[in-house]
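Newbie here. three chains, one complex. Structure please?
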Amino acid sequence: MSRRPLAVLSDGAVGAVAVIAVMLGSGASGSLAAEQAAERREAAEEAARRASAIEQDAEREDAAVSPRGAREHLPASRDVASLPTVASINLCTDQLVLHVADPVQIVTLSWLSADPEESTLAEAAARYPLNYGSAEEILRFDPDVVIGGVYTNAFTRALLRDLGYTVVDIEPATSLDDIEANVRRIAAAMGRVERGEQVVREMQARIARHRRRLDSSPVAAIVVRPGGFTVEAPSLAHELMTLAGLRNLPAELGLDRWGSLSVETLLHHPPELLVFASYRRDDASLANAVLAHPALERIAERTVTADVPASLWSCGLPNSLDAVEMLERAADRARSARASNARRSVLAESTR
Amino acid sequence: MTLRLDGVGVRYCRRTAVVETTLELGAGQLVGLVGPNGAGKSSLLKAIAGLVPHTGAITWRSMPLKRMDRLERARTIAYLPQSADAHWPITASELVALGRMPHLGFAERPGPRDAAAVAWALERCAATALAERRVDRLSGGERARVLLARALAVESPVLLVDEPIQSLDPRHQLNIMRVLRDCAGRGTLVVAVLHDVALAARYCTRIVLLAGGRVVGDGAAETVLTADALARWYGVEPYVARHLGEPVVLPWRQID
Amino acid sequence: MSGAPSGAASLGSTARRFDAVPYAVLVPLLLGACVLSLWIGRTSTGPMLGFGDAAIAGAVLTEIRVPRTLLALLVGGTLGLSGAALQGLLRNPLAEPGLLGASSGAALGAVLVFYFGLAAADSLVLPLGGVGGSVAALGLLYGLAGRRADLVTIVLAGIAINALAAALTSLALNFAPSPYAALEILFWMLGSLADRSVVHVLLALPLMLPGWLLIGAAARGLDALTLGEDTAASLGFPPARTQWLVIGGTALSVGAAVAVTGVIGFVGLVVPHMLRPWVGHHPRRLLVPCFVAGAALTLLADVAIRMMPPGPELKLGVVTALIGAPFFLQLILRHGREGGL
């Protein structure tokens, strides 16, 4: 595991002397990083040659405190020792990694991924050591690949890259195609190309099923996200709505780019379906206060409503399609309500 | 050792404060710059101190002030502004030591020579006992003495003071005037803007009377601060007399 | 020259007393803070830094903790130094480096870089945007206030620039390409030293160094300003020169600091006040002790952050504000009561 060519600092050397030594030596850190990267690759190849090294690996990681000890308890497939280990430092990439990885590969996930309000795979994530996204933590886990989002931990990712780690930056998905691309990128980085393709194929099959179901009479819907935000177009959430046979009313009204929905707009343009992207509904927060507006409740009385957990579509995930299923069911309810309303008004017409 | 003003004029935007003034001021003089409000006294003093842009030339010992380097000029001319004050609560001796700044290089620390100058300046102004007091806790009279000591500590051959006795009680006024006369007695050229014509007449060796930005009188107190001049330029009728051989000029009545 | 020996002696002793005391306390404090900073990590402490592997421990020390420590020293020192210089320049004990708009300009610059998505490629683009922002803010200040501007005009221009930068930053937040980007911008504005590398030290230092030198060149001018602008000019230190030296130095050094760490408030305000009772009120004598104390305070605040219980790291700007705000309040109360300093 000692891949770093740096001089080993003795226990007592922490202090002013070390600072000076380090200041003198820091000029060479660039070339050091390159060297380290090379050594890292060699080490990975070495590991590949010893294909049945999983037991040895467990032995080598004998220290009970080592986070890699977790590996011992997981079932080992035949070729896992050749797979790169991976650390994820972003909620969205955590979940993508969980979809694609062999469990043995994952050395750590970010802390939010084990929170059921934030993450769709909280239970699975809770089995792994969690990190708070600092470089020191990641160094402890010493993974082969670090996966993060482009908009989070910018400094951490740069530092880890300097230290010779392979860092994969994942853009937040703004469409279903993005999700597929992200799955493929992560799968490739983790040496799990086949598994990635499998996930993508499953997604495509589900998408095709939803497309076939698409009705000619879309349901006018408003999605209210925490903070009173609506869904802009184009966006992943918009695409998911469309796929579920919904018309994104705020987007049609031109409330683009995280448009906030005013309660007045809602009263002027009553939707057939009101979807709440629920997030920590029990916690007191300004965002949830918006959702609890009395006027909204009054509309909700006359409108079909549905709850879809915000975690399903705040990250672009293969299981974001679960949101489509929920929305489809809600759309069906809205259509039958539309039909019964129409019948009622026809009846009212005829009795007059 | 003369300070020569050659056609010195001061303009603020559109207003002319001082019209081409030519004066020759010699070492050892205590020059009282007097005149009604708005006569241009302070402007002239600031022009000499290099604080306002001016036309014409000012030379000290034939050396144009404009050609001097900043610190050389600061060593030549000390200036005590009207209603000067310290913005930080430093001690009196620290304040006076600021007067030594033109003598010190970039990282130079004050030496025994500077300490001696500070001590001398404090002593001249009868402020030695105040040395370790914080300036924000001094009375008005004490502070005026310390501030004057700061200007003296520069040990410059030229000392410019603007209204040094403003808002002081009579005892302190006399005290400050005596210090200024002593300085002149030691060979310093002292130029003081004064509103109090009585004290100006009594202490100054030379009076320069300004009105409307021009010199309208220059010479000994008796020849400049006459009843006619005071009536014409100040609009007052004075009581003029001599007491113990020194001139007394006391504004007595406003002329309508 | 008939010297008064007592006066001369007391003057000399005063100067010596003022110089020795703060360093006798500050230097050990600073060294202690450095040792703590190298010793204590977010997840582990101790001689081996809690890493079984000596090579990894060495990497953590040299590539994570040392840069972080150095940056805390540089940034904290810059904030303390520029705070002392600005308070001396404005002769106002409530002056602060953020006053001139250099901080908010740098923040805006970094946010704009983020908005246009340039920072995604390499985190170094973010600091560069910050430096650009602080230079732009200074340029605007210069344009608004002019060459021979009085301090009131400069302060008012600074307020205007701060307001403009804050408004534009909010606008950028509104147009952020993703909620994650907006969140990251907000976090960045709170200031942090987490996971900065030697690269950031090397990026900030070349701008900080000339900034410090400019402020140092203004040191005597600041002392002269104690007696007001006219006296300062008559002592050979024209206020306009002092003014632009301090403003230029602050913009460069604080701009570079904000660019790599985000906005860290209150250090520049609090440190000069903490030191005045020991060092005296001479602006020049305050400069170096304020640099040292600012560095120590910032580093200790950062160490405190690392000692918090496990969880996402607290932002440094939040901690300095938590320390600074009550101090500021007490200062204002005392200011109102005594009507002085």
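Moderator note: Chain C touches chain A through 56 residues (CB under 8 Å). The radius of gyration of chain C is 21 Å. Thread marked as resolved.
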